User: Which sequence fits this backbone?
């Protein structure tokens, strides 16, 4: 029962960095960012490759993003994806998730897909919307926050993570889309020969005309959407910061813990 | 299209999720601007008692009961809501929860409607929806303006607004009949699973010392354990650590783990993602140690230390012992 798996990846700015507001106040400054594969998408890719290793089939890594995202697709191929597709959507901010999901769905619809996987959320925006949007456009069932996947003859059995550590078990007909939760597996590192090989593999580039639209704007929904402002968040409150070097800080915190009665003896 | 704001109730095993009442509070505020009313869509099977409970907060409940709604599924809810809301609302609200962000984006695709997810605030200005969100580990705030003739679909981050309390006059409960074709659902619910606890219960501890990615490697856990021991507390963890199996899942503090309210919470090398903060923000005294002075953990902590935990924590333990 070979499976054609499409795994949707996003290249995101490393969220551990500090960010600055762009001059127009409508985006972050993007001139000196370091980009990486979205964390949850790494787990989705690993799950896709493991399913292929178990059942046979093909893994296609797919993204919508600027040229820089090719680096991510090459890493995906080095980790086991058989093919890579980039929708040449050059908007670096890509704030309209409806539009992005719509174009991704159109690209997936044109190729075999028994299963579509993506990460549960993006590290930059964290909207958790793209996966279920894509499933809605493709009119296929989906499940979010998946922590375990079992493949049966006709469908899938999956475990979804709920709040408070509970899980729910659901089954889905195929084709289906799953958004994969962190921790479902341990993503592998790419071996050096595979990295070398992936650097020479082709990446299919998809333009809006390939999907029946003259521009990517054709994938927008019936609304106007505009960023009004990007700003550092208004701090709700802020910790009282303990000054000094580590020795001073340790002394001050120890004294604080004594005053508050947390130190016995 | 109507002017009403509809909030999708969330409930599991006979209990209404608190986020439902937060949606009502925000929905009421928005409805005052759209010129409509806030209504709660409650979907389930044998849930008329819950409908009464929600209505007691002074809000009208649209109650849809069907065998296919006995447990939440995206397909079942989508079919039911489409049937219930033949005249679509101006705004449809859901919580940004494992149910809400599973459902809302799918509805947006099916309804050809705009979606704004994970909002910390929502407002209406002359028919335009203003969505406030936090991005990049909550290090930046974004305000988005969306204008549409289609219903606005939005998910609201839990804990963003004050929930509505009990009201003097209850709202009415309006039963709505829905037709659902389970064959079109594509997803079947089988049951819930709960982790078996064979570990200490971190939610019962007075002192929790939690480790995050700042401890760099598993071999450094004894540093954190040393501090927990010195304070008579237990060791908790942020999600990345339990994902990597450095500590069992039972130690995870956060939305998908445990919610803790200890007297003292020390966050060691935890940046403070929304999912973690949701699980510890109500602790009595919060002390955070992180190398990044812009880490969001310092927004909820009472005291902050900008330092490498691997240097600071041993120094603190030494101070505590020397006293």
Assistant:
């Amino acid at each position: 029962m070979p499976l054609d798996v499409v795994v949707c990846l996003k290249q995101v700015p490393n969220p551990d960095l500090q960010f600055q507001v762009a001059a127009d106040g409508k985006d972050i400054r993007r001139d000196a960012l370091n980009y990486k594969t979205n964390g949850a998408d790494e787990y989705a890719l690993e799950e896709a490759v493991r399913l292929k290793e178990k059942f046979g089939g093909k893994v296609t890594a797919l993204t919508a993003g600027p040229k820089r995202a090719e680096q991510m697709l090459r890493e995906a191929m080095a980790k086991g994806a058989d093919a890579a597709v980039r929708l040449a959507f050059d908007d670096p901010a890509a704030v309209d998730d409806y539009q992005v999901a719509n174009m991704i769905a159109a690209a997936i619809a044109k190729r075999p897909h028994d299963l579509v996987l993506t990460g549960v959320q993006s590290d930059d925006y964290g909207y958790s919307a793209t996966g279920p949007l894509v499933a809605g456009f493709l009119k296929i069932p989906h499940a979010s926050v998946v922590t375990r996947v079992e493949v049966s003859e006709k469908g899938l059995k999956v475990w979804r993570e709920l709040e408070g550590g509970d899980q729910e078990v659901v089954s889905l007909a195929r084709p289906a889309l799953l958004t994969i939760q962190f921790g479902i597996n341990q993503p592998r590192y790419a071996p050096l020969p595979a990295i070398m090989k992936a650097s020479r593999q082709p990446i299919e580039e998809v333009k809006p005309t390939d999907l029946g639209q003259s521009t990517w704007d054709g994938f927008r929904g019936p609304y106007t959407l505009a960023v009004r402002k990007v700003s550092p968040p208004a701090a709700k409150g802020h910790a009282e910061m303990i000054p000094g070097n580590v020795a001073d800080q340790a002394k001050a915190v120890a004294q604080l813990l004594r005053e508050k009665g947390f130190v016995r003896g | 299209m109507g002017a009403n704001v509809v909030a999708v109730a969330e409930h599991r095993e006979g209990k209404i999720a608190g986020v439902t009442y937060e949606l009502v509070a925000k929905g009421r505020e928005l409805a005052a601007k759209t010129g409509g009313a806030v209504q709660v869509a409650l979907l389930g099977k044998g849930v008329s008692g819950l409908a009464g409970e929600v209505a007691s907060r002074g809000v009208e409940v649209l109650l849809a009961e069907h065998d296919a709604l006995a447990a939440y599924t995206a397909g079942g809810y989508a079919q039911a809501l489409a049937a219930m809301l033949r005249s679509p609302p101006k705004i449809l609200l859901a919580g940004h929860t494992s149910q809400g962000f599973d459902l809302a984006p799918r509805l947006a695709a099916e309804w050809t409607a705009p979606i704004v997810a994970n909002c910390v605030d929502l407002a209406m200005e002359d028919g335009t929806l203003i969505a406030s969100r936090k991005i990049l580990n909550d290090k930046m705030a974004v305000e988005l303006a969306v204008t549409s003739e289609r219903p606005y679909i939005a998910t609201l981050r839990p804990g963003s607004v004050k929930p509505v309390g009990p009201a003097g006059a209850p709202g009415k409960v309006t039963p709505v009949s829905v037709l659902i074709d389970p064959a079109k659902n594509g997803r079947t619910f089988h049951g819930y699973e709960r982790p078996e606890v064979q570990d200490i219960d971190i939610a019962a501890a007075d002192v929790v010392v939690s480790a995050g990615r700042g401890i760099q490697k598993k071999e450094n856990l004894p540093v954190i354990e040393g501090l927990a021991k010195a304070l008579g507390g237990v060791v908790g963890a942020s999600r990345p650590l339990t994902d990597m199996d450095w500590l069992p899942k039972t130690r995870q503090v956060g939305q998908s783990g445990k919610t803790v309210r200890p007297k003292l919470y020390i966050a060691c090398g935890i940046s403070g993602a929304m999912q973690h903060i949701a699980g510890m923000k109500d602790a009595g005294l919060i002390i955070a140690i992180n190398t990044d002075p812009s880490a969001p953990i310092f927004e909820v902590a009472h005291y902050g230390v900008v330092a490498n935990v691997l240097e600071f924590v041993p120094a603190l333990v030494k101070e505590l012992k020397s006293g």
Remarks:
- Chain A has one domain: 3-219.
- The CA atoms of residues 170 and 252 of chain A lie 52 Å apart.
